[in-house]
Amino acid sequence: MNTNSNLYTVIYTTIVVVVVAAVLAFVSQSLKARQDANIKAETLRQMMAAAQIKPAEELYATANADILQLYADNIEEAYTIALDGEKNGSLSVAADNIELIDKLKPQNKAILSEGEATLPVYLFKSGIAVIPIYGAGLWGPVWGYIAFQPDCHTIAGAFFDHESETPGLGAKIKDEAWFREKFIGKTVEWGDSPAFVLAKNAEETGATNAIDAISGATMTSNGLNAALNVWFGAYSKHFGLAAFFGMLAGHQASDAEKTEEE
Question: Nearest to residue 55, comparing CAs of 139, 180, 208?
Fold first, then answer.
């Protein structure tokens, strides 16, 4: 065959493209198990950082296998709920078969379209419950995990991440511990709109469900605020009822103690 002909060029190019594509597909498939394990461990680190199982720095210094075992040792139950607040599934918490809802974009679409959602709830043995949030930042997705005290009303911790927010500005939602710590002790007002406020000078109102936005990162803060409220709205029927009964039980316990004292 004439190596200078157009036919030769087309055939040669086609063979190279097919071979390269086959090699890339093989490498991708070979690495898939490792990639999935890394994603699972990353998700668990973020959840357990929010739940205050260990400091984030320590969790990120821990090997994947140990992260799986740490989660299994501390988790009590994991399940999913629909938008009506009812349970619609359960998730395995065994160390050798941990199940997570770590693809949050489809769930976000289901929430916004009021479709069929499977929203995860992770209950730890400490009594803390963790839920995810997901939304759009300035340059890409932002997401995170919010942990609640047993009263299902008070925030116990938070952890956030992003795909491509600006270093030194929007990226502070992940990089700065002080930002995450601002959430601790704040409340989520289930059923209210908004349930939580992340905005400029929000803390001046004195509201327990408000914190100040990150200075210089208005768009990222706005995106995170929207994500928080969209997902809190999705969980409001489930957690709002739990918070009511949790507080009611607390009041009953207090009344019983007073009666005994009298």
Answer: 180
31: pLDDT strictly greater than 60: no
d(CA 199, CA 221): 7
| Rounded Cα gap, residues 10 and 48, in angstroms | 54
Backbone angles phi and psi of 142, in degrees to 5:
-125, 145
Of the given ranges (13-22, 68-77, 91-100, 219-228), which has the lowest mean pLDDT?
Answer: 13-22
Q: Domain ranges for the chain, please list them.
A: 75-261
| Token pair for 256 | 């019983």
DSSP letter at 187 equals B
The model's pLDDT over 235-254, given as tens digits with 9 standing for 90+, comes to: 999 998 776 665 444 434 44
Contact between 144 and 133 under an 8 Å Cβ cutoff? The reply is yes
> pTM value?
0.82
* In 141-200, beta strands by DSSP E: 141-148, 155-162, 197-199
- The C-alpha R_g of the chain, in whole angstroms, comes to 23
Say if CB 52 and CB 145 are below 8 A apart.
Answer: no
Chain centre distance of CA 148: 13
